[in-house]
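Tokens for Trypsin-like serine peptidase. Go.
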Amino acid sequence: MKRTLAFGGLVATAGLLAAGLAAPAQAAGDVASTPLAANKIAAQNIAAFWTAEKAANLIQATPYNVETQVPAKHVSTGGPSADSKPGVVPAIGDEKKAAAKSKNVNLPKTTGKVFFKGADGQPHWCTATSLQSGYKNLVATAGHCVYDTVSNKATMDNWIFVPGYYQGKTPYGIYVGKQAFTHYDFDVYEDGDRDYAFVTVYNGLKFPAGGFADFKDMKWEEFKNYAGAQEVDEATYKAYQDADKEKSGRGYWTKTDDKGQTHYFVFKWADAGRLGDNVGGQGLAYNQKLGKPVFVFGYPSGAHPDGNQAFSGKTLKWSYGKTFAATAPAIKGEELQGVKSSFTGEGSLGSAWLLNYNNGRRVGYLNGVTIAVADRDNNKRIDTSLSPYFDGETYGVYSAAKNNWSGSIA
């Protein structure tokens, strides 16, 4: 909903949209921006939270399912309205190529999981995707997979993006969030019509050969030549302690040698490079006419209302359908779009809705992100996914995020 409708009001119906690219005006006050990791040491501590102790937190993380399923009686047809002409931002590598339709589906490398610590203190994950940007460092997902709508303390802690994640493996590296951008109406009112976020990430971090080990019980002779450890001075060690908000001790530690001398160590990370260089980045589409087909890519998990466990959340899945207008007052959504999909809600939050997806290049235009699911025909099977309608205000938030540099933290 627009801010003038933040507390209720009529929903306008969409008309025919004129073709062409337009960059709509966007007031600076419509964008909320929050830091996630302010510097190199803080970012490395976040990465260590997920990878220490043989990547225990990564492996044990569960899908985030806060306010996921919307009762069918609270989902009805509505009509999001375009606020300017339709426009697109091309995907990385697709800047001079026309998108094409394809009957075959190759899964995109751009999609992965975002991990964070929720308000319950436990590790969770959502789906997210890499997006075109000036520095090839931008991730898009649902707003409530970044901003904490449960405890209202601001953003989630220890936020990272892992494209291609599978059972503790991080094939393209770990990308720590630097700065989060969302719409003012979501940040303040938790407006479902603005439930999206764009996050800049630092260059990826890769762990050296040998994998994520548990250093606590290693003897000095075994440990001193371990490739994953970098010796530092005491001042640097204390800087890591000071940046560790949770005082977890992960990612930095001391060891005593055979002569009784104390040595200080931190994780030794390698720079994996920029996100967009490694996996590409989807384009962005906004103010598009409803009724167009989209592919939805995500990691659905959890059971249908009848108890059927259709998805494990371990592998990337896709669904396909045409968008339609929808409202869901239960999540403050009066100008949403829906698509038929059997994706269950747990894990599918943040799933990418890609318009004009090209099978060969595995890119298209991000035109939505899943924020909720519903069983609209009341047969106890999820059949609908819901997303904010991407309009000029979405483009404005994206524009605020797209040209922010992050750089290496290795």
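The mean pLDDT is 85.
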